[in-house]
Amino acid sequence: MISETPAIISAKDIEQSLQFYRNLLGFDLAYRWPAEGPVEYAFLRSGEIAVWIVAEGMVEKLRRTSLLHRDSVKLELRIEVDDVTATAARLVQKGANLAVAAQRPGMGRTAFFEDPDGNLICIEGKRHP
User: Fold this and answer.
1) Dihedrals φ, ψ of 4, to 5°?
2) Cβ contact 124:107 at 8 Å
3) Can you tell me the distance from the alpha carbon of 31 to that of 55, in angstroms, rounded to the nearest whole number?
4) Domain residues for 64?
5) Domain assignment of residue 1, yes or no
6) Sheet containing 97-104: which strands, arranged edge to edge?
7) What confidence score (pLDDT) does residue 106 get?
């Protein structure tokens, strides 16, 4: 059985990223490691969306054990909301960095934000069957 895999985000400053995802986007912290002291990775949830945030130092450790030895890739996380305009306005008011907002033909309104490490957060309208 195949299930949805959580997104993995690398962060230069994991505490700053945790504040962004928790305070601005409303994610809940489900797990962090280690339990005390500086965080090396954390698991967050918001509804059906799950995200791992991993400190860049930990990514480097994992990369050294990887057969691929490739550079980290920036992520684009997509979040569906009922009202893109209202959600985008609320995020801007809280201090989120709006990269671009657009009305896409056949797709509706979309807003792109950047997290503290330059990963894109795409806010788009819910698709109704």
Assistant:
1) -65, 135
2) yes
3) 14
4) 7-125
5) no
6) 76-81, 120-125, 108-114, 97-104
7) 64
